[in-house]
Design goal:
The chain has about 300 residues and is of the alpha/beta class. It contains 10 helices and 14 strands. The strands form 3 sheets. The protein has a 6-stranded mixed β-sheet. The relative contact order is 0.14.
């Protein structure tokens, strides 16, 4: 495991921001850290990056208890970006890279690599305040990955980006992951979780209410819904035998009591000589799972 959170607690005055949270992040994975506003995600990230310390519990990074050297192995891009507005882009990246332990020569090599990759060499002497929000986002991303960390923590990484730059950053994240970097996403955009993440932890009111592998969770929350499409109209008596959630002339969504009954509507329609064009199980989206889980744990 690249990261192991074990029974961690964090309190501020009388408020418990993180309440006995435990989960593991597998090495080399894309991991989604989810939760509504105020759930405790930022407090958890601050402990992982050693900005604050747990009141209880322990956090292990790459097999060792987190310590003063841990931040050099982590890249953290907060939702509230932290660039120095008056500094020139090249000077700022050089400064931030050296803070992460790179030599001046190595930092310049990495800056050249990323500037060539993003085709932004002309930005070197521009001040951050003169860049658009999307351009600043690219610089923030470079500052986060320039020291080639073992773990990336990205808080709403696509916020403020247009579709073209979103895809650009997304592709780079995927390439970094393929090269072995472990990545934690903290995001509200569930479609990105479904598309990119292999594992998730859902935090609500300081507690971990859902954790596991994405596909396994989707299977766990499925409601045995099946969409059937046909070239023929569906027989009227179909609704007398099965629970119908939606229906048009040539498609129908049917719910069965369990997975063992999935073939029953097909058998019925074939007996009625209905030509079946397609049959697929409908798994819940992560938007649906998120809403259901948070609703099931309102006082967690």
């Amino acid at each position: 495991m690249i990261l192991s959170i074990q029974n961690v607690v964090k309190q501020y005055d009388k408020h418990t921001a993180v309440d006995h949270v435990s989960f593991d992040v597998p090495k080399g994975s894309l991991f989604g850290l989810l939760g509504p506003n105020g759930a405790g995600k930022t407090s958890l990230i601050r402990m992982i990056t050693t900005i604050t310390a747990p009141d209880e519990g322990v956090i292990f990074f790459d097999g060792e208890k987190i310590n003063s050297q841990t931040p050099e192995k982590i890249g953290y891009m907060p939702e509230e970006r932290g660039l120095y507005k008056k500094m020139k882009v090249g000077e700022q990246l050089l400064y931030l890279a050296q803070l992460k332990g790179l030599t001046k020569q190595k930092a310049k090599q990495e800056i050249d690599y990323w500037f060539d990759k993003f085709d932004i060499n002309s930005w070197t002497n521009k001040k951050v305040e003169d860049l658009s929000k999307g351009m600043q986002q690219k610089i923030q991303f470079i500052a986060t990955v320039i020291h080639r960390p073992k773990l990336l923590i990205l808080d709403e990484p696509f916020s403020g980006l247009d579709p073209i730059n979103t895809n650009l950053i997304k592709d780079e994240i995927i390439q970094l992951n393929k090269a072995g970097t472990s990545i934690i996403f903290s995001t509200h955009r569930m479609e990105q979780v479904e598309e990119m993440c292999q594992y998730i932890a859902l935090i609500n009111k300081g507690k971990n209410v859902l954790y596991g592998e994405v596909q396994e969770i989707k299977n766990r929350y499925k409601q045995h819904l099946y969409k059937i499409e046909s070239n023929d109209p569906f027989p009227i008596e179909l609704g007398n035998h099965f629970k119908i959630h939606a229906q048009t002339e040539n498609s129908v969504i049917i719910q069965t009591e369990n997975a063992d009954q999935s073939n029953l509507p097909l058998k019925f329609l074939i007996e009625k000589q209905v030509h079946i064009r397609s049959f697929q199980e409908l798994l819940p989206s992560f938007d649906e799972i998120f809403i259901r889980t948070v609703g099931e744990h309102p006082n967690s």
